[in-house]
Amino acid sequence: MRAEGIFGEAVDRIGGEPISARMARKAPVRHLDLTLLVVTLLLSAFGALMIYSATVHQQTAAGIDPYLRKQLVYMVVGFVVLLLVAVFDYRYLRTFAAFIYGGIILGLLIVLSPIGSTQLGATRWIDLGSFQVQPSELAKIGIIITLAAYLAERKGEVRARDVAVCCAMVAVPAALIFLEPDLGTALVFVAILATLFLVAGAKIRHFIALAVVGLVVIVGSLHFGLVKQYQIDRFTAFLNPRPDVRSIGYNLTQAKIAIASGGIHGKGLEGKNTQTSLNFVPEQHTDFIFTAVGEQLGFLGSATLLGLFALLIWRALRIATMSRDPFGTLLACGIVALWAFQIFVNVGMTMGIMPITGIPLPFISFGGSSLITNFASIGFLLNVHMRRFL
Amino acid sequence: MVKGSGSSPQRQTSLGIDRMTLRIAVLGVLVIAAFVTLFSRLWFLQILATDQYRALAKENRVRTVYSEPPRGRILDRNGTPLVVNKESIAVTIDRDTLQRPALRYHVFKRLSHLLGIKLKDLRYNAKSTGTSPYKPVPVAYDVHERDASTILENREDYPGVGVEPLPVRDYPAGALAAQDLGYVGEISLLDLKSSQFKGAHPAYAAGDIVGKLGVERTYDRYLRGRPGIERVVVNALGEPTQTRRVQSERSGPDLVLSLDAKTQRETQRALKSGIQAARNAGFSAPAGSAVVMDPRNGQILAMASLPTYDPKIAADGLSKKEFDRLGQATPNNPDDDAILNRPIQAAANPGSTFKVVTAGAAMATGVATPYSTLDCPGTITIPPKGGPGSVLYHDWTLADLGVMGFPESLEVSCDTFYYQLGYDMQTRFGVKGTEYWSGDKTDVPSGRELFQRYARTAGLGNPTGVDLPYENGGVVPDQQWCHEQYLATKNTPAPTCQYGWLPGYTVNMSIGQGDMRTTPLQMAVTYAAIANGGTVWAPKIGMSLERQQQDGTVKTLREFKPKAVAHLPLNSTELGVITQGLGEVISNPNGTAYSAFQGFPLSKYPIVGKTGTAQIGTSVFNDSWFISYGPTPDPRYVIAVYVQKAGHGGESAAPIARQIWESILGIDKNPTVTLGQDQSG
Fold first, then answer.
1. B647 Cβ neighbours under 8 A, 6+ residues apart
2. What is the CB neighbour count within 10 angstroms for residue B97?
3. Alpha helix (H) residue ranges in B5-144
4. For labelling, which of A384, B49, B81, B134 has a CA lying 20 to 30 Å from the CA of A6?
């Protein structure tokens, strides 16, 4: 192959290397992060198995477990999304950041409009016939892109005005999500914002100011009753769980029993996994999926899962450092924040060291929007990784 | 951040990246901290705390379910059913509903309307809860089947309301021996700790229906049968997923009592009729007891206690309200207590019926011989030589009845005769003052207080050991008792036994007064020992356990035989003079029960007995006793009758006993009692 046109005459070598060879060397597909891809597939397979084990005993009709079937469909859709996200150059995203942001706000507004669908007392979904979309999940990756695009422009010089703008950008979707109500997801946004401030180069004084503002907001919302008493009770239940069935402490007690009774080797997927198979843990295929891991696979399985997560985050951090531009770095760090926060809060919740919030465990919990968001995140990471030389 | 003006673009970039790498490293450290936290917690739960949580997981899912088998029936000695089982429909409300005031009110209102029960009563029943925190609370019993199906068909209108078949007791023989049979009810916390129920296998648990009183209680371990035990694995909704039978259910065997239903009925009727006659004659006569016992083997044939109740009201246990109605509402006045089993629980001064014990003790200790004679003056000074501290004791009559032997002393019930015997025993074997008190203990040597020792041998002062709960042992007062009373009352203005044992105590005791207290059953045992040649029985009302086999035959599983607990230290001559005296009480015109037994065919059925008239300090009425046995020379029955505040022994108690005798012997069809005449003390 010969390079012509704007390069002028017969420039077929750069630094002694034939251009064709150079282009082939730098071709994105040759720099695919295979480790990340394998970890992703392992995690989602792990999740599918756990969803199956947590729901199979509830099923009465013959045939494949409907939860497993749905999750497998989500995985396929997620993988397609991953490919779509990975093929184009992520840098174009900056151009669309404003549209993405608008899309998020629109989606969240639709949820709160009468069209939104309500389950278990929370309005979080848009019903699209055969499936439901949870815009707050998609908003997570959306806000990462928006913030990364904005902060990348600052080139390491974050001013007080930028901090204020970013806070305002996050406050709108976070407030909408808080109204659903979904305190946990709203907090994910805060974690992403704080992480991106850190990586983008906000000053210590900015953090201090933010902490003060945050404190004022918390005290104010408690004082003016913006936060309901049941939310406070739920949030603080882990400090002193009451095991009776009607209290939130019941979930927690049963979750701890499930995990701890698994022991080193776990009770296996058949027969002895009584906490799981006899439905003692509520919401086990979604928010409390880690209890199914703990009981059935024991310490070995749980530690393996945490190990896979550590690997995932290590790869993401590695990509953040390898990115050739701040946008890619910030994008990867936002994704790190998204996962690390969700993993810590979710797993911590099931083990009784974090408050009970409705935050799913990435790749493991049942749920399409969450899984697709996570696959898209992988797509972005692969994208940044592949194009680090271009 | 990058300020170096002369540096190249590459340098700028690399410096910027360096700063960013540093910040990413900070993020990395935070992530590592989070993971280390999760790993430590996971280690703690799954490695260190596993055992504890495994136990909790098991507790979660395994429920042990006990099923209560049909309770054994209770039959009389001839196989007549006294207590059987019947199914009754109870309406229950679960505890969850009861704990929510608004819902509870709504449910009560509907039930009240449907069942025609007052709201107040429903509330009351709901409050008288048992001990099991899991079982729903029954609020209405004996509900009509139609109402039960209304509830079942309209579940949503009756949230938390259940319908349960409740096995209850039924009494086909009617109101017979209510206090002896007892009743069943939910086990109390106190019961659970009592020796009656502790250590049983399988263990009793809160919520169990057990015998609360009477033979239902004593024989509960047999009657309850063997509960079925199932281990059920349940899911989070409490729905069973797996069941393993640990023990199959087995109904309780039938308990055969030594009671004879016919004798029991007639004894009750005679007692009731006699008490009525006493009341008609102006006595207060609030309560009475009658015992019919076989002196040959210690079996109780009839035991009646008045006032009584229809056991039907206790078929499903007794509620607090029913308890109160049966006389428990006035604890200071036990006279109207229908639950009290007076023959074994009400101890009182035996009065002159005790004289056979004094006579026996005098002969056994050598103070007298069967042929001894003593004077029977109207009054007597004790000590006889007079002096300071001497007391003048009265006979029940002022007349001097002259010199007499044991038989005549019993016949006319001469008090002064027995005062002398009592005083003789006091001087030879008695203790005085605070002798043998050492600190808080009493240490009387074995050769002393032989009078009391004889009384105990004769079955007094301790529970007889009858197979019924809560027996009263009565009191045989002695130095130790005196000391104990003193220790208990020493801080009061007038302590009991302030000066220790006084000779007057022994003198009073010799005619069954003072602090001497016995139950009617104890007196029956004492007289039975005289009747049967000296054997003191621990009487029994339970006779055997039997089970109907599938082929219709009845198999006896176990027999309960009364035990001989002591033997009177008297020979046949000594016993003979006592029996002779007791015979003259009835047959001799001077006898205190002569009038009561006038016209009785004594030649055909020689009955002997003794009247007792106990003076009670606070009442104008005396307690009336009559203990008899016969027909001699080989007595088959001992009959003890005690009527509270009903005059002399020969007036009320003896005519009742005569009526019972006539019924047992089948010689009189007129079941009413006519009072007799008796002036003795």
1. B278, B281, B283, B613, B621, B622, B624, B675, B678
2. 20
3. 9-43, 50-61, 95-98, 101-115, 119-127
4. A384
How many angstroms away from the CA of A279 is the closest CA of chain B? 5
Q: B492 and B501 in contact (C-beta within 8 Å)?
A: no
| Interface predicted TM-score of the whole assembly (ipTM), two decimals | 0.92
Read off the pLDDT of residues B249-263 as tens digits, 9 standing for 90 and up.
Answer: 888 999 999 999 999
Mean pLDDT confidence for A246-260: 82
- The sign of the torsion formed by the CA atoms of A7, A10, A12, A15 equals negative
> Is pLDDT at B216 greater than 70 in this prediction?
yes
Tokens standing for residue A145: 């892109």
pLDDT on residue A11 = 66
Give the C-alpha separation, A297 to A46, whole Å: 11
Give the mean pLDDT of chain A: 88
- Alpha helices by DSSP H, listed for B458-600, are 479-489, 503-509, 520-531, 572-587
Cα separation, B624 vs A249, whole angstroms: 70
Contact B60 A274 (CB under 8 A): yes
pTM, two decimal places:
0.64
Look at B237 and A279 and tell me if their CB atoms are within 8 Å: yes
Check: CB of residue A78 under 8 Å from CB of residue A374. yes
Asked if B20 has any chain A CB less than 8 Å from its own CB, the reply is yes
Residue B76: its pLDDT value, please? 95
Region A358-368: mean pLDDT is 93
**Regarding beta strands B74-75 and B254-257, do their DSSP bridges make them parallel or antiparallel, or are they unpaired?**
parallel
Q: What 3 state SS string does B432-472 have?
A: CECCCEECCEECCCCCCCHHHHHHHHCCCCCCCCCCCCCCC
CA A87 vs. chain centroid, Å, equals 21
| Residue A173 burial (CB count, 10 A) | 25
**Residues of chain B with C-beta less than 8 angstroms from the C-beta of A201:** 1, 19-20, 23
Q: What is the pLDDT of residue A197?
A: 93
